């Protein structure tokens, strides 16, 4: 096998398309197909499932993808080590992110990053924290970003942003700005509550906090469940109920007078956001660049 064959396979697997891969690496589709066929023949296994609508890796293909990308990463690192000028760096970074980082952290980070590195393309897919972990294990993405630490040891998980949960209430509420635990328990039991979906990092951190109040999620007066923070904040600002949200996500709504946030006298619900990468994956220069940039950007 040679690097051209590996590159053809990696791009077809990433883009789920022979034609897109051909356009990306400037080869004809027959050449791409020939490279893939040669690889499969040499390895003695099918790497890709081809249908009339899509192309996607087999289990063997997913396993081989890690090794193929690592070999290409070593090639790119060798080239990068002798290249002149960081502004000439080109490439693509694919991210899986839970709702808060996807909506409130990544947009500003990417905007600043691309002023220095305009030739790097970002592809961001949003899900909840639990699904980010599952998809990063089984799909072909560079990094995952979650609002809670995932169990297990599949990933390198680096905390990069420190936040906390605040209680968001409609702007018309006359609730005191500071609540005792007793007042908070009564509020949570009686007021309509807007919940995040199962798998959400916010929901997991909320569940952990409720244990300190001897409460469970089932004891809340839940009236609605959303799969993203923006919808939760919209519901709160519309008067549908109250909810716990990340401080970073509530800032603009609070500044515009759409909601109020309540501080808790005896509790601070801290949370971290994590950058995830697969342990066995060798990062390409463009991926290393982004990783370093993100960690430095949010360094306190």
Automatic annotation (TrEMBL):
The keyword Transmembrane helix does not apply. Transmembrane segments: none annotated. Belongs to the LysR transcriptional regulatory family. Keywords: DNA-binding, Transcription, Transcription regulation. InterPro entries: LysR-like_Sec_metab, LysR_HTH_N, LysR_subst-bd, WH-like_DNA-bd_sf, WH_DNA-bd_sf. This is LysR family transcriptional regulator. One of its GO terms (molecular function) is transcription cis-regulatory region binding. It comes from the Bacteria. PANTHER family: HTH-TYPE TRANSCRIPTIONAL REGULATOR, HTH-TYPE TRANSCRIPTIONAL REGULATOR GLTR. Residues 1-58 form the HTH lysR-type domain. SUPFAM superfamilies: Periplasmic binding protein-like II, Winged helix' DNA-binding domain.
């Amino acid at each position: 096998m040679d690097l051209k064959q590996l590159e053809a396979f990696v791009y077809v697997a990433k883009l789920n398309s022979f034609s897109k891969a051909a356009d990306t690496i400037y080869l004809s589709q027959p050449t791409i197909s020939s490279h893939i066929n040669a690889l499969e023949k040499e390895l003695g296994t099918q790497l890709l499932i081809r249908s009339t609508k899509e192309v996607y890796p087999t289990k063997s293909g997913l396993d081989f993808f890690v090794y193929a990308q690592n070999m290409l990463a070593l090639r790119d690192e060798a080239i990068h080590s002798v290249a002149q000028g960081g502004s000439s760096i080109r490439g693509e970074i694919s991210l899986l992110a839970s709702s808060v980082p996807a909506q409130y952290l990544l947009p500003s980070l990417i905007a600043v990053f691309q002023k220095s590195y305009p030739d790097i393309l970002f592809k961001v897919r949003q899900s909840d924290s639990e699904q980010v972990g599952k998809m990063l294990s089984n799909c072909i993405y560079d990094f995952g970003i979650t609002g809670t630490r995932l169990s297990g040891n599949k990933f390198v998980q680096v905390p990069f942003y420190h936040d906390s949960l605040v209680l968001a209430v409609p702007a018309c509420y006359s609730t005191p700005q500071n609540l005792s635990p007793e007042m908070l328990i009564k509020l949570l039991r009686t007021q309509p509550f807007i919940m995040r979906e199962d798998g959400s990092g916010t929901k997991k951190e909320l569940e952990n906090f409720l244990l300190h109040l001897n409460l469970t999620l089932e004891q809340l007066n839940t009236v609605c469940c959303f799969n993203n923070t923006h919808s939760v904040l919209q519901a709160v600002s519309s008067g549908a109920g109250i909810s716990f949200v990340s401080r970073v996500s509530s800032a603009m709504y609070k500044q515009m007078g759409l909601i109020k946030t309540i501080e808790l006298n005896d509790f601070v619900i801290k949370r971290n956001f994590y950058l995830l990468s697969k342990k066995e994956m060798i990062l390409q220069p463009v991926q290393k660049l982004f990783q370093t940039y993100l960690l430095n950007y949010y360094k306190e």
